[in-house]
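Q: I'm building a small set of examples for a reading group on sequence design. Run inverse folding on the following structure and report the sequence directly after it, with nothing in between.
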C-alpha cells in the first residue's frame, strides 16, 4: 500500500517524539498527531517552543522544522483517521487500578476505544500499527475489534514497539539499535519498513511475527530492569561488607560478556515502562500457569520496591531515628534526568514514606512543576490533598529548598546538581548536614571535605 498520510493517535511521550522524527526524515509524508486532550494539543501547537508539553533534548528543534510543514497536531481524531492510510496507536496503557488483574495487568481500555473508533469511522483500507507498550497478543484483540465492528474494509495490524528511552528519545529515534516490525501481511510490513528506511539502515529493520514483536518489547525492558535490580541487590551487600558498588560495577562491566551499561546502582528504577512491562510479563506467565516464570520476574519488582524503601529507612535511621518536623530537601522528582516525566519515579515513594514520618519536604526539580508533584502524591491516596500540600513545598531555586534543611536527598541525576556550589549549600543547612545521594552523583571525598555527612548507594 502506498503511504502518503499517517495519523498517530496519542500525543504523548511516545507519539510526539516518534512522529516528529518520522516527519523530519520523510518530508513527502503528511503526519497528523491527534489526541482527545485538547490542552495537550494546544501545548504542542504553542508558538513558544519552550511550552511544548514534553521536554526532550533536541525535540523542540525538530518540531520547529516540521510543524505546519508536514507535521500537524489536532483534536479531530475522526478526520485524521479517515485521511490516513496508516494509523499508529500511541495511547497510554497504564497498569490496571481496578477489577481483575488490578495492579498487574495492563489497562487496555484506551487501546480498545481507539480500535473501536478506527472501526467506526474508517471508510478505506488501513494499516494499524501498535506503538503503545502492550501485553502479548493484544494485536489479536485489536484485530478482532476491527474485523467484527468495521464496515467490511481491510485492516492490517502491525506491532512496532518503541525502544526509545526518555531523556534521549530524539537520539534514540535518529540512531535506533534496531526497528522491529511484527505482522502477518508482508505487504503491510514493507509499507512501514519503507517509512523507516529513509534513515535506518536496512539491516537494522527486523521483521518478525506479531507475537515475537510484542514479546520482544517486554523482554528487552525486563532484562534491562533486571540489571538494575541485580546491581541494586549487590549495593545492599556492599553497604554491609565495606565493598564499593561503583568499583564492583566497573569491574564486572569490563567483562565483555556482561558489558558496562545499566549497572548504575540507584534508589530504584522508575518510568512508565519497566514496572508495567514486567508486571505484564508476570501476569501473562501466571495466566498460563507458569508460576516459576512469573515468580522469577516478579522478584525484579520486589527488589526495586525494597530499594526505594531501604533508601528512606536509611535516611530516617541516620537522622537519629526521627524526621518528624525536620526539613528534608529533595533534589529531583523526575524518574531520570532530561525528562519532565515523573511516572513511577522513586522520588514519589520516598517522599510518601518520609511524609508518613511527618517530615517537611522541600522539592526542587528543574523541569517538573509543583502541580505535577502534588498530583503524583495525591494519586497514591495515602493522604488528603490538604495534608500533602501541608507537608510538601516546592521551590523554583535549589538554595531555597536547602535553607535550614537537615538533609538533602538526591533523587534524579540532573547534571546541574554536580555543578552546584556545595560549600554554599552546606552553609545554608542545619548541622550536621546530611546528603543521601540516591544516584551516586557526587564525589564522596569532596563532600566529606566540605563537612557533609555523605551517604550514597552501596558505599
Ligand atoms: C525504557 C527502555 O530503556 C526503553 O528502551 C523503552 O522503550 C522504554 O523503557 P525509559 O523508561 O525511558 O526507557 O528509561 P531508562 O533509561 O531505561 O531508565 C529506566 C529507569 O532505570 C530510570 O529510573 C533510571 O534512572 C533507572 N536506571 C537505569 C538505573 O537506576 N540504573 C541504571 O544503570 C540505568
Ligand atoms: P506514552 O508515554 O505511552 O506516550 P502518554 O500518557 O504520554 O503515554 O500519552 C498518551 C496520550 O494518548 C495521552 O495524551 C492521551 O490523552 C491520549 N489518548 C488516550 N486515549 C485516546 C483516544 N481514545 N483517542 C485519542 N487520544 C487518546
Amino acid at each position: 500500500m502506498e503511504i502518503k498520510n499517517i495519523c498517530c493517535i496519542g500525543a504523548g511521550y511516545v507519539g510526539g517524539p516518534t512522529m516528529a522524527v518520522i516527519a523530519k526524515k520523510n518530508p513527502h509524508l503528511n503526519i497528523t498527531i491527534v489526541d482527545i486532550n485538547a490542552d495537550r494539543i494546544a501545548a504542542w501547537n504553542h508558538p513558544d517552543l519552550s511550552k511544548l508539553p514534553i521536554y526532550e533534548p533536541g525535540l523542540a528543534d525538530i518540531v520547529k522544522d516540521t510543524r505546519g510543514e508536514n507535521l500537524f497536531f489536532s483534536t479531530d481524531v475522526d478526520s485524521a483517521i479517515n485521511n490516513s492510510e496508516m494509523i499508529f496507536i500511541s495511547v497510554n496503557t497504564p497498569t490496571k487500578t481496578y477489577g481483575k488483574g488490578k495492579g498487574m495487568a495492563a489497562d487496555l481500555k484506551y487501546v480498545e476505544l481507539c480500535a473501536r473508533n478506527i472501526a467506526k469511522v474508517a471508510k478505506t483500507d488501513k494499516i494499524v500499527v501498535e506503538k503503545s507498550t502492550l501485553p502479548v497478543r493484544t494485536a489479536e484483540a485489536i484485530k478482532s475489534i476491527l474485523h467484527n465492528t468495521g464496515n467490511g474494509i481491510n485492516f492490517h495490524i502491525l506491532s512496532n514497539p518503541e525502544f526509545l528511552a526518555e531523556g534521549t528519545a530524539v537520539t534514540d529515534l535518529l540512531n535506533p539499535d534496531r526497528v522491529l516490525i511484527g505482522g502477518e501481511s508482508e505487504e503491510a510490513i514493507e509499507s512501514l519498513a519503507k517509512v523507516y528506511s529513509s534513515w535506518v539502515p536496512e539491516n537494522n529493520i527486523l521483521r518478525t511475527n506479531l507475537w515475537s514483536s510484542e514479546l520482544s518489547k517486554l523482554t528487552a525492558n525486563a532484562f534491562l530492569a533486571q540489571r538494575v535490580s541485580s546491581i541494586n541487590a549487590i549495593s545492599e551487600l556492599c553497604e554491609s561488607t565495606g565493598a564499593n558498588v561503583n568499583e564492583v560495577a566497573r569491574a564486572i562491566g569490563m567483562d565483555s560478556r556482561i558489558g558496562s551499561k545499566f549497572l548504575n546502582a540507584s534508589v530504584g528504577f522508575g518510568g512508565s515502562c519497566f514496572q508495567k512491562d514486567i508486571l505484564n510479563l508476570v501476569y501473562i506467565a501466571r495466566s498460563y500457569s507458569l508460576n516459576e516464570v512469573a515468580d522469577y520476574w516478579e522478584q525484579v519488582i520486589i527488589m526495586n520496591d525494597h530499594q526505594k524503601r531501604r533508601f528512606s529507612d536509611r535516611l530516617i535511621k541516620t537522622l537519629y531515628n526521627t524526621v518528624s518536623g525536620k526539613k528534608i530537601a529533595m533534589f529531583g522528582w523526575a524518574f531520570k534526568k532530561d525528562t519532565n516525566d515523573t511516572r513511577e519515579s522513586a522520588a514519589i515513594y520516598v517522599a510518601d514514606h518520609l511524609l508518613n514520618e511527618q517530615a517537611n519536604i522541600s522539592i526542587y526539580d528543574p523541569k517538573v512543576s509543583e502541580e505535577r508533584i502534588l498530583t503524583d502524591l495525591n494519586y497514591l491516596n495515602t493522604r488528603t490533598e490538604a495534608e500533602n500540600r501541608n507537608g510538601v513545598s516546592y521551590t523554583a531555586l535549589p538554595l531555597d529548598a536547602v535553607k535550614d534543611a537537615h538533609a538533602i536527598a538526591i533523587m534524579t541525576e540532573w547534571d546541574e546538581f554536580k555543578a552546584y556550589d556545595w560549600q554554599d549549600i552546606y552553609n545554608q543547612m542545619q548541622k550536621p548536614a546530611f546528603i543521601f545521594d540516591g544516584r551516586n552523583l557526587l564525589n564522596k571525598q569532596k563532600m566529606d571535605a566540605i563537612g557533609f555527612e555523605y551517604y550514597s548507594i552501596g558505599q
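The chain has a mean pLDDT of 96.
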